[in-house]
Fold this protein.
Amino acid sequence: MSQQRHGNTPGNPGAVTAFPDLPEATIARLPEYLRALHNLAESGSDTVSSEGLAAAAGVNSAKLRKDLSHLGSYGTRGVGYDVALLIDQVEYILGLDERRAVALVGVGNLGHALAGYDGFASRGFRIVALFDADAERVGKPINGLLVRHIDELGRAVVEEGITIGVIATPANAAQGVADELVAAGVTSILNFAPCVLSVPAGVDVRKVDLAIELQILSFHEHRKASLTALPGGRVDESGIEAVGS
Amino acid sequence: MSQQRHGNTPGNPGAVTAFPDLPEATIARLPEYLRALHNLAESGSDTVSSEGLAAAAGVNSAKLRKDLSHLGSYGTRGVGYDVALLIDQVEYILGLDERRAVALVGVGNLGHALAGYDGFASRGFRIVALFDADAERVGKPINGLLVRHIDELGRAVVEEGITIGVIATPANAAQGVADELVAAGVTSILNFAPCVLSVPAGVDVRKVDLAIELQILSFHEHRKASLTALPGGRVDESGIEAVGS
DNA sequence: CGCGATTTGTGCACGCCTTCACAAGCGCCT
DNA sequence: AGGCGCTTGTGAAGGCGTGCACAAATCGCG
């Protein structure tokens, strides 16, 4: 799922870390579990069954149990999972106990919104620096943070202890920015630009392409339309039924 | 990968559609191939090898060939793929030959940026209506489009022929909006709100959660840090090497 | 103290996806 | 016309992920 491979150093029998190596699919679901757990905690639940948590997270309960079992045994048979304890565990695994410093590069249309997105702060991240190459934008404040020129990136990364970079530039600038981020010591990049980034081993890149998501939906629309339009197999008109649960 | 199942009507031997049933994993990659193909076309390439296209799309060449083989044989052995022909094919499969009408609900911080995101228009989509529940925002223009009140959603969906809805509201409002979209006849939803939506069968939901992507990166940061901190296995300091390609 | 109800943790089988490796096919050059 | 190099398309194998179904474990109650 991740676009770059991870420098895993598989053979290392001597220095066995206590860090569990979770399946990538499990990792991708942990944040969803965490969100559901926070909701449960707010609504006053002390414990939750795998069935309940699975429903809140929109997954199968067997899958959830298997996922959690990879972290260790934090449930009690006959009772369920301790919500507070599980939150701590998941947050620890995800490395959210330390609020990570994030740099955002590109404060155009999308970047501006990301800079003001409070969902980051509320889930363990601090955007500590904003950068742009456009002199027009440099120096202006966004959400209480001044936009700095991209040239200052290297210094800022070191000073602020930044480990994650978010790229929200146009596609043609993204690779250059990625190179600078990597050179400055950033080892994780979230890329919103519609292009492939090449980075050295050991650097993780995740890509979010908003148009791609729509295109995937478009495919399914196309498929559904071609099915209902068939002479033989007319599906129930609008596909609307009662909403279950 | 998709969060909801698809009403597939598997047993229907009589009405065999010419529509190929592609693996979900392949579908998710087609938009990436398409983007790479457009880049190649712009740079004047008439044909491209699987190796070349795979590199441009950031995937394995064998995987790309298998993906494309599912669409049919559009390559020429010894030569490669005809770029223009392949673009047409992929766009047809993705249903992008008709520019789909999209409704965007919630023009807050993120929604505002999505409304102005030109990546949608340039890749086959038209945002034709904006909605919000906040009277403060209703009536104001964004990118040449007036924000309408959410109550008008039902009528607008029918009038404008909207088939895709984008939810960019706070989490607590998302399910209500989804219900209204579905009731109005929308059968595909892109959800940016951090919550699970429940929709009837036949409606596709895709979710994009920006914070989750960061949390996944955070996990890998945590893992990398715990590895380098080990006494035995110190990895090469910054992990920086020459960038390939 | 024992029993039943409940829920976790997991062995197992199945299916999807990826990757390798190679035969088949196409164009070009001689 | 024939052969050679290149590239596609695909059979087969392996790995990963999912979901079922059940044994193991815990709590509460009589």
User: Anything to note?
Assistant: Chain B has nine helices and ten strands. The longest helix of chain B spans residues 24-42.
